[in-house]
Design brief:
Length: 212
């Protein structure tokens, strides 16, 4: 089975190009001002223009309003929208408004959290299981927090899905083995500092995924 990988929160041409060259299937651009990975629209457009057609460009949002969605999608350079802290009803609206596939993040700490995945059936195109960040944390994602992957074992997934949260070049093979993920997503595990991707770590992560 081919396992795909999304490198999230890319913000420079050098690291974006490195992720593409090393085999990322998806690249993520964050549109959330409190994040160290936040991109202004113009910057995102410049980066998106560098991405070859076989690599999917994912816009990452936190419960976006229509104005942000419209501004972010008007150039037509996003293929997928990934939304955090967004209700199923709003996910359905976003999909209808933009005509784009939508991935809904489900924040996981304990088994009961997985029940939220089913509420997105008929609304989202994919579930991104991500670790629940601590109460009061600045960000709902991109914090390098992982959850207990055994929670996904035997779980009947209501939709296609991806695994995220605290992955890095050293643990991603084990995460894939334990969960059977067909798509993995990483941000801080391939950074040298918050918001600064490390090319060697990006390459090591993608090599570990490809060897799985
Ligand atoms: O990365 C961010 O700054 C971010 C901000 C707000 C919402 C989501 C965000 N990231 C979403 C992602 O897809 C991350 O890759 C995912 O949460 C995993 O992050 P990490 O645990 O750091 O690998």
């Amino acid at each position: 089975m081919t396992i795909n990988a999304k490198i999230c929160g890319l913000s420079t041409p050098e690291t974006l190009d490195a992720a593409v060259r090393a085999g990322a299937s998806h690249v993520g651009f964050v549109f959330f001002p409190p994040s160290p990975r936040h991109l202004a629209r113009e910057r995102a457009q410049q980066l998106a223009a560098r991405v070859p057609h076989h690599v999917a460009r994912v816009g990452v949002f936190v419960d976006p309003d229509d104005a942000l969605l419209d501004a972010s999608t008007s150039a037509g350079d996003l293929h997928i929208l990934q939304v955090h802290k967004t209700s199923p009803a709003r996910v359905a609206q976003i999909k209808a408004r933009t005509g784009l596939p939508v991935w809904a993040a489900v924040a996981v700490k304990e088994r009961a959290d997985l029940a939220a995945a089913a509420t997105f059936a008929g609304a989202a195109d994919r579930i991104l299981y991500d670790a629940k960040t601590p109460p009061g944390a600045a960000l709902p994602g991109g914090m390098g927090v992982r959850f207990d992957w055994t929670l996904l074992q035997g779980f009947r997934h209501p939709l296609r899905w991806a695994l995220s949260g605290g992955l890095d070049p050293h643990n991603v093979a084990e995460a894939i083995r334990m969960t059977g993920a067909e798509l993995v997503d990483v941000s801080s595990g391939v950074e040298g500092a918050p918001g600064e991707k490390d090319v060697a770590k990006v390459q090591a992560f993608l090599a570990a995924v490809q060897a799985s």
